[in-house]
C-alpha cells in the first residue's frame, strides 16, 4: 500500500530544507546579494528624498517649523514662477523638437550610402559633456559677429540683402559747410554753384575702419556747367593739417552717397570715387548737397541671442544639438525592425512616400517614439548645466529653470535650504507622473 506521505507516487518525500525563490535561489542568498544595492539605494536615494521632504517644512535656519510656507513661496515668488514657466517650455518644446529631428534624420539617411557617416556626425555631440557644450554655445551666441558664429552667419545673410554702411560714425567737424539735415543726414548750409568745387569734410571714422579702396583725397577740378567736389576724412594721422582743407595724408570716402536737393526733392545723386571726388550734372546747380542718413547707418550686429527674449530658445537649441543624435539612434534601431513588406505593399497600392511615412512608418514606430519622448522629458526636467553656463548674469533670471533655482536657493547668496528642499520635492513630484507613464507603457508592451 502506498504511503500517504509520498503523495501516492511511491517515491519518498524530499527532505525539508530552506525555502527557495521562484528562480531556484535560496532567499537568504538572494537577500545577501541584494543587501549592498539596497543599502546604497537607501543611502543615496531614499534618505535624501525623505530628508528633503522633512527639511522643506522648516524655515531658513532649520529650527522653526514653517508648515507650508516654503511651498507657498514657490507659487508667489516671481523668480521661481519664471523657473516653473521655463521648465514648462522646456518639457513641451525640447523633447518634441529633438524627437522630430531624430525621426527625420533616421528616415532620410536610411537610403543613402553615407547615412552611417551622417549618423556618426549627428551622434558625436553626445560624447561632449553638458559643461563643454555650454562653453561652446556661449561662444557661438556671442553678440560680436567677429567672435560669435551664429551672428557671423546672420550678419552675412543680412548684409547680402541690405548693404552695410562704411561710415557709421562719420560727422561734420567744426566750422564745416555741413549741418544736420534731419534723420541723421547732413546737408550744406548754402546752395552750390556749377563750376565751383565743393569741399565736404567729415570726421569720426577710425582709420582702420575706412574702406580698403580709399585713396589719398584730391581737390576736385572745376568743370563748366557741372558741380564737382570732394568728400574726405578731414583728419591727419599723427597730427598737423588744416581744418576744412585737403592735406596730403588725408584720404577720401569712396562710395559715399551725395544727393542734390532742391525744394526738398532729390534731383540727382552720385557716389564719390576712391579719392573722394564726385561730379554732378547741371541739375545740381543751385541745389543743396546732402549726405543721406544711409551713409551713416550703424552696422548690423546681428541678434542678441543671449538677451532676455531669446535666451531660453537659444539654450534649447544647444540642447537639441546634443540630444537629436540620441533620438536618431534609438529611432533608427526601431526603424530597422519595421517589416519592409508592409512598406512595399503600400507603395504597390499607390501610396506616395509621405503617405507611407505618415500612415505606416510613424504608427509602427510609436512605441520607440514614446520611449525617446518620455526619456527626454525626464531629462529636461533636470536641466541645469546648459542654463548655468550659457546664460550670462544679466539674463540668468530670464533663463531660470527649477534645477538652477534649486542650486541658487540652496547654495547661493542668502541661501534658504527650506525653499531649496521645497523646490527639490516639486521636481520629484513633476518627474513621478512621467515615470509612471513610462512604467505603464513598458508593462503594456511586455503583455503583447
Describe what you observe in this structure:
The strands form two sheets. Strands 1-2-8-5-6 form a five-stranded antiparallel sheet, with no helix packed on it. It has a three-stranded mixed sheet with strand order 3-4-7, with no helix packed on it. The chain has 448 residues and is of the alpha+beta class. Helices cover 47% and strands 9% of the residues. The chain has two domains: 69-152 and 305-447, MetI-like fold (Orthogonal Bundle), CATH 1.10.3720.10; 178-296, no CATH class. The longest helix is centred in the first third of the chain and has 31 residues, at 78-108.
Name the features:
2 domains; 47% helix; 13 helices; MetI-like fold; single chain; five-stranded antiparallel beta sheet; alpha+beta; disordered N terminus; 8 strands; 448 residues
Describe the protein's topology.
Blueprint (H helix, E strand, L loop, with lengths): L26 H29 L13 H6 L3 H31 L6 H9 L6 H11 L8 H13 L16 E5 L2 E4 L9 E5 L24 E7 L23 E6 L2 E7 L5 E4 L7 E4 L19 H26 L3 H9 L4 H12 L1 H16 L3 H6 L11 H10 L5 H31 L1
Parallel strand pairs: 3-4
Antiparallel strand pairs: 1-2, 2-8, 4-7, 5-6, 5-8
Helix pairs in contact: 1-13, 3-7, 3-10, 4-7, 7-10, 8-9, 10-13, 12-13
Spatially, the strands of the biggest sheet line up as 1-2-8-5-6
Mean pLDDT level:
87
* Distance N to C terminus: 49 Å
CATH superfamily of the largest domain: MetI-like
> How many domain units?
2
Instruction: Give the SSE order as H and E letters.
Output: HHHHHHEEEEEEEEHHHHHHH
What radius of gyration results from the CA coordinates? 37 Å
**Count of helical segments?**
13
Briefly note the CATH topology name of the largest domain.
MetI-like fold
CATH class of the largest domain: Mainly Alpha
Amino acid at each position: 500500500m502506498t504511503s500517504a506521505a509520498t503523495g501516492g507516487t511511491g517515491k519518498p518525500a524530499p527532505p525539508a530544507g530552506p525555502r527557495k525563490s521562484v528562480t531556484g535561489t535560496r532567499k537568504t542568498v538572494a537577500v545577501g546579494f541584494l543587501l549592498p544595492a539596497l543599502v546604497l539605494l537607501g543611502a543615496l536615494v531614499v534618505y535624501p528624498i525623505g530628508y528633503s521632504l522633512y527639511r522643506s517644512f522648516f524655515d531658513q535656519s532649520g529650527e522653526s517649523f514653517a508648515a507650508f510656507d516654503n511651498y507657498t513661496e514657490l507659487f508667489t515668488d516671481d523668480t521661481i514662477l519664471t523657473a516653473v514657466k521655463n521648465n514648462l517650455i522646456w518639457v513641451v518644446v525640447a523633447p518634441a523638437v529633438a524627437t522630430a529631428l531624430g525621426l527625420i534624420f533616421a528616415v532620410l539617411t536610411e537610403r543613402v550610402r553615407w547615412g552611417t557617416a551622417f549618423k556618426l556626425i549627428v551622434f558625436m555631440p553626445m560624447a561632449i559633456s553638458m559643461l563643454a557644450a555650454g562653453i561652446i554655445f556661449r561662444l557661438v551666441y556671442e553678440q560680436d559677429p567677429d567672435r560669435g558664429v551664429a551672428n557671423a552667419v546672420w550678419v552675412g545673410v543680412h548684409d547680402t540683402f541690405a548693404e552695410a554702411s562704411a561710415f557709421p560714425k562719420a560727422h561734420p567737424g567744426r566750422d564745416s559747410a555741413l549741418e544736420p539735415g534731419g534723420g541723421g543726414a547732413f546737408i550744406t548750409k548754402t546752395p552750390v554753384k556749377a563750376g565751383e568745387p565743393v569741399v565736404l569734410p567729415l570726421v569720426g571714422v577710425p582709420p582702420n575702419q575706412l574702406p580698403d579702396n580709399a585713396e589719398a583725397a584730391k581737390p576736385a577740378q572745376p568743370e563748366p556747367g557741372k558741380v564737382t567736389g570732394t568728400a574726405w576724412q578731414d583728419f591727419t594721422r599723427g597730427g598737423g593739417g588744416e581744418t576744412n582743407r585737403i592735406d596730403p595724408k588725408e584720404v577720401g570716402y569712396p562710395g559715399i552717397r551725395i544727393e542734390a536737393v532742391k525744394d526738398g526733392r532729390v534731383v540727382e545723386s552720385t557716389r564719390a570715387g576712391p579719392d573722394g571726388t564726385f561730379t554732378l550734372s547741371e541739375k545740381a546747380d543751385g541745389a543743396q548737397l546732402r549726405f543721406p542718413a544711409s551713409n551713416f547707418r550703424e552696422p548690423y550686429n546681428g541678434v542678441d541671442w543671449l538677451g532676455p527674449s531669446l535666451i531660453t530658445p537659444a539654450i534649447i537649441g544647444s540642447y537639441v544639438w546634443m540630444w537629436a543624435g540620441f533620438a536618431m539612434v534609438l529611432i533608427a534601431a526601431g526603424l530597422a525592425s519595421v517589416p519592409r513588406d508592409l512598406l512595399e505593399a503600400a507603395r504597390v497600392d499607390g501610396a506616395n512616400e509621405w503617405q507611407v511615412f505618415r500612415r505606416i512608418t510613424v504608427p509602427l514606430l510609436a512605441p520607440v517614439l514614446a520611449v525617446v519622448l518620455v526619456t527626454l522629458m525626464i531629462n529636461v526636467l533636470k536641466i541645469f548645466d546648459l542654463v548655468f553656463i550659457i546664460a550670462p548674469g544679466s539674463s540668468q533670471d530670464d533663463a531660470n529653470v527649477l534645477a538652477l533655482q534649486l542650486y541658487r536657493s540652496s547654495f547661493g547668496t542668502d541661501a534658504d535650504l527650506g525653499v531649496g528642499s521645497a523646490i527639490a520635492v516639486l521636481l520629484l513630484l513633476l518627474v513621478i507622473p512621467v515615470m509612471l507613464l513610462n512604467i505603464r507603457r513598458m508593462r503594456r508592451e511586455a503583455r503583447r
